[in-house]
Structures are given as C-alpha cells and as structure tokens.
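Researcher: Going back to the complex we discussed earlier. I've cleaned up the inputs and rechecked each line, so this should be the final set. Can you rerun the prediction on the complete assembly and write out the structure?
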Amino acid sequence: MAIVIRRDLGDTSMPTGPRSSSRARIDGLDEVARVIRYHQDE
Amino acid sequence: MTNPTLLLITGLPGSGKTSIAEGIAKDLQAAVIGHDWVMAGLRVFPTVWNTMSELEHLAFRSVGWSVMWNIAIAQVREGRSVVLDGVARAPEVQRTRDVADEAECRSFVALCSIADARAHRERVIGRDRNIPNWPELTWEDVERSRSGWEPPTDIDLILNALDPVKDNLAKLRRALYEE
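Model: Rerun complete. Updated structure for the full complex:
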C-alpha cells in the first residue's frame, strides 16, 4: 500500500515541478483534454 | 443579506461565468469554488483520474461537483456564502438546490448565456485561465458542446454574456438583494 501512495505522490509532483515543461506534461494535458472532451459530449 | 447564499453560476465554457463569479464573490465576501480547479486537483493522481475517466458522463462530472458541494456545506454552516462556478446541467443544478435546502441556506442559480457563436468563438480562443495541470478546451470542443447544450431550466436569472461584466454584476446584485 505504501508503494502505491508513494507512486501517486511522485506522479503528483511531476507536472507541477521543474519538469513541467517536459514533453510528458504536454502529452498528459492532451490526454486530459481528450477525456474532458469525451465527457462533455452528452 | 444576513443568511448565507449558495450561488451557482453556470453556462457553457467561455460564457463569462468566472468573471461573474469572482465579481459577485467580492460583494458576498464569499469564496469561489470552480469545477475545473477541483478536477485539475484530482487529475494529478493517475489512479484516481483513470478511474474517473471510465465513469459515465454524469458520474465523471459529479466527482468534482461532489467535492464542491461538500466544501460549500462547510462554508454555509459557518455563515459564509459560496459561489460555485462550473458547467452545471439540470442534475447539478438540482443537487445544488438540494444541498442548499439541506444546509438551510438560500440557493440562487444564474445562467450565463451566449447566443452569438462568433463572439463565443472569440472568447474561447482568447482564453487562458492558467489552471495548473489543466488544459483549455479548443473552440472545436466548445462548439460541439454548444450544439448539444441544453441549458438548465431551474434558474433564477439569465445573464447575456455579451453585456458588459459590470452590467451583469449589477443585474445579479439586484436579483440577489431584491429576492
């Protein structure tokens, strides 16, 4: 269980930390936009 | 006003909800709780976000609204008004009314309406709220939302998004204080 928590916290810090301009963040936002887009379509 | 109010500002993305919410919140000395801000906070936990993503549309959105309603209840219990800012459809409006009833405070729902698609497009394209870890929707996204948008009917006031913000705030103040 502790490992799961640590992994989540690690992922949390990634988009907000110094690596925020990384390609990973850009891809992450694209994926988030896809999910939002999907769920806004009734 | 002496009793706290649970105020909901709804409308499509880019219809000026946040400007109205922030403006009226100053009057009410209230906090603004934005749906996108809550969802952005949840989004950074991959396990949570992935699970949410697989929910039905209403359930997905309700995760954020549920957090907002709980924070709102805590505020109104202490006598503070709250402004909720998000794309609330009929179910979210109804639940906001119920939450206010249960918390024994007043509810008020304002709808920001924007009929002119061209003006709407300009607003969406120029928008950058800078919410951490949260993307801005494109006009194509919002346009698709527009086409399927059924505004909630249980509302107290309609604001024309193309009117100046100060005029809309004045209109909202009148409705809030005179009700």
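Model: Worth noting: The longest helix of chain A spans residues 23-40.
Researcher: Good, that matches what I expected from the previous run.
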